[in-house]
Design brief:
The chain is α/β, with parallel strands linked by helices. It has 11 helices and 8 strands. Strands 1-2-4-3-5-6-7-8 form an 8-stranded mixed sheet, with helices on both faces. Strand 5, helix 7 and strand 6 form a beta-alpha-beta unit. The longest helix is centred in the middle third of the chain and has 17 residues.
Length: 330
């Protein structure tokens, strides 16, 4: 485990973006302001211009939106497949499935993860299904996003032939709050006897209890350029409203972490949540679940969605691809 020093600095591109941007007043964010902010931010993240920051998709993959009918709601998923000639012909056994959940909490879109997901689809090869889950707001707590991830996973696995996937070779992959969703989905999968080969958790949030803000990295990086404590407090308020049991939404405090799919936990060191990831890897290992922890010195929160300005994203993408390649083989 690498130690973060007080002189560690974010990449130049991140510092420039931070200097040019203006952080909203999260403490004064009303429901109406949040909707407007989320809409504007997601339009920006899905724009062609944003590719300079979020990365250009792998040309060896096709990308399309699909509508999915789920119990009581319709949801969009973004589907990445290897192009014909790049493993797109699944063969009789089908391709592996990687269920992806993007980060952001109250803002975010699957499009911001096109770079990494298209690469995985083309290079593994695999079918990657990214869930455009319900975002957090005063009326939509975190369990809604967890249900979205779980219901999409079940739907695709149950209709494996239709999706061209091999249900016996399935992994989940999440970023930030998406990692919390996929960690909880991995626990549900074990309890439901739905086999998973692997879980990948990138800069995960795993603690929504009263100890969420007590981890040392929270204090050390309280005002990092890509995630701040005021932002996290707003997320916490939406994720676990009064009357909600925060332990039920906190993988770090799950009753049983044994028998889960082997995990790769990816931690950028300039991140308030760095100790969340470190603590979760330790908890998985203590429970007997294989867990590999990798750290990226100098990288910031959400770095995997910003390869254009954070060089460490390429190394993280390579390790994720190799981890999944081994886990999903044969």
């Amino acid at each position: 485990m690498s130690e973060v020093t007080g002189t560690e600095r974010p990449p130049l591109g991140i510092r420039l973006l931070h200097a040019l941007g203006k952080e909203p007043d999260w403490s004064a964010m009303t429901a109406e302001k949040l909707v407007a902010y989320s809409d504007a931010e997601n339009r920006k993240r899905a724009s062609r211009l944003a590719r300079v920051i979020t990365g250009f998709p792998d040309r060896g993959a096709t990308i399309e939106w699909q509508e999915m009918a789920l119990p009581g709601r319709d949801l969009r998923v973004r589907v990445y497949r290897p192009s014909p000639g790049r493993g797109g012909g699944a063969g009789r056994a089908g391709l592996p499935l990687v269920l992806h959940v993007h980060g952001g909490g109250f803002v975010g879109t699957a499009v911001q993860s096109d770079w990494v997901n298209s690469h995985l689809a083309a290079r593994l090869p695999a079918v990657v299904v990214s869930v455009e889950h319900r975002l957090l707001d005063p009326e939509t707590p975190l369990p809604a996003a967890v249900d979205d991830g779980w219901d999409v996973l079940q739907r695709v696995v149950r209709h494996a032939a239709q999706w061209g996937i091999d249900p016996a070779r399935t992994a989940v992959f999440g970023e930030s709050t998406g990692s919390m969703v996929t960690a909880l989905v991995a626990i549900r999968a074990r309890e439901s006897d739905l086999p998973l080969r692997a879980q990948v958790l990138v800069n995960p949030v795993v603690d929504l209890t009263s100890t969420m803000f007590e981890h040392a990295s929270i204090t050390r990086h309280a005002h990092s350029p890509t995630l701040t404590v005021p932002q996290m407090r707003l997320l916490h308020r939406f994720a676990v409203p009064p009357g909600t049991d925060p332990r039920a939404m906190s993988p770090l405090y799950a009753d049983d972490l044994s028998g889960l799919a082997p995990a790769l936990v990816v931690v950028p060191t300039i991140d308030p949540l760095a100790d969340h990831g470190r603590s979760y890897a330790e908890a998985l290992r203590a429970a007997g679940t294989p867990a590999r922890l990798t750290e990226h010195p100098g990288a910031t929160h959400a770095f995997l969605s910003m390869p254009g300005v954070v060089p460490q994203a390429k190394a993280a993408r390579a390790e994720i691809a190799e981890f999944l390649r081994v886990a999903l083989a044969g």
